[in-house]
Design brief:
The structure holds 2 protein chains of 2 kinds.
Chain A lengths: L3 H4 L6 H15 L6 H18 L6 H24 L10 E2 L5 H13 L2 H12 L7 H8 L3 H18 L2 H4 L2
Helix pairs in contact in A: 2-3, 3-4, 4-7, 6-8, 7-8
Chain B lengths: L13 H7 L3 E2 L4 H11 L8 H10 L1 H11 L1 H7 L11 H6 L1 H10 L8 H8 L3
Classes of the chains: A mainly alpha, B mainly alpha.
């Protein structure tokens, strides 16, 4: 049964899009290395989400689930064509210019996480404030909340290790 | 805390998570917003490489018609670097502003036909 939140979404999609779009593109890029492909997936997913949002139990989780499905489908379609192409260099994260080196290290470390950990970390850390709960992440990804929490902790620990001075000096 | 799985927030990893949050997801492009808007208005939802190829091969006049139908931002968003003939169509739109206004006001839906359109189809997925 859909909860009340699903029915209390405004009629205008723009505030929802503006609030979530950056996080949606970042999430899609965990499956699609090209920014343009990620935006293609977000476009298709957001329109689908908005038209079917009344059926969602949790709109935020459903929105990210729509993006995940679209991104995975598009990756499958693109795989043959893009196999030999290199990933686009467009940064996935933004931050103070003084921390540009750190940002690059972070993006590289993030790319080294297993996909199942990476997607949970991205949803937990970079979904719009206050951030998705593990229950919402579980719904978006199609796993249990305990598994989401577990993958997050493994992912964060691994990310921290990859960004430690000993590793980044290598 | 309503979610028992969240109880260890504030633990040893919390400062690292705060460090990660110094960074934010890079902003989505303005073109994406325009394309979503087009989708919401019931225009073509799926970005089509076939249409892009058609725009690039049919020439300026046909491009004006297509830009009128789907919106300049949408087409620009599809004009990827590396695609033959790809590029910014805004100058073209500016140049033909009067014609665009006229077409938009008429509400006409024009079809593009001919050998060049076949070339566009051949480039499809």
């Amino acid at each position: 049964v859909p909860d009340a939140d699903a029915h209390n979404l405004p009629d205008d999609w723009r505030p929802w899009f503006d609030r979530h779009s950056a996080a949606l593109v970042l999430f899609a890029r965990q499956f699609l290395s090209h920014r343009q492909d990620a935006e293609d997936a977000v476009q298709a997913a957001f329109v689908r989400f908005w038209r079917t949002r009344q059926t969602a139990r949790d709109p935020a989780a459903y929105l990210f689930a729509c993006v995940r499905t679209a991104a995975v489908d598009l990756r499958r379609a693109r795989q043959t064509r893009r196999r030999h192409e290199t990933a686009a260099a467009a940064p996935a994260l933004a931050g103070p210019e003084a921390l540009d080196d750190r940002r690059r290290l972070l993006e590289a470390a993030l790319a080294r996480l297993p996909e199942e950990q990476r997607e949970v970390v991205v949803l937990k850390v970079w979904s719009p404030p206050p951030g998705l709960t593990f229950a919402q992440i579980a719904e978006a990804v199609g796993i249990s909340a305990n598994t989401a929490a577990s993958r997050y902790r493994y992912g964060i620990t691994r990310l921290q290790a990859l960004l430690s001075p000993e590793v980044t000096r290598e | 805390v309503s979610d028992p799985l969240e109880v260890d927030e504030g633990g040893p990893g919390a400062s690292f998570e705060e460090e990660l949050r110094q960074f934010a997801p890079a902003a989505a492009s303005a073109g994406l917003r325009a394309r979503v808007a087009a989708g919401m208005e019931g225009e073509r939802l799926r970005a089509s490489d076939r249409l892009l190829a058609g725009v690039m091969t049919l020439g300026a006049a046909a491009a004006v018609v297509i830009v009128t139908l789907v919106g300049a931002d949408w087409v620009n968003a599809r004009a990827r670097p590396g695609v033959a003939g790809g590029g910014d169509l805004r100058p073209l739109v500016e140049e033909r502003r009067a014609l665009l206004a006229q077409l938009a006001a008429s509400g006409d839906r024009l079809e593009v036909r001919g050998p060049a359109a076949d070339a566009g189809r051949a480039a499809g997925p």
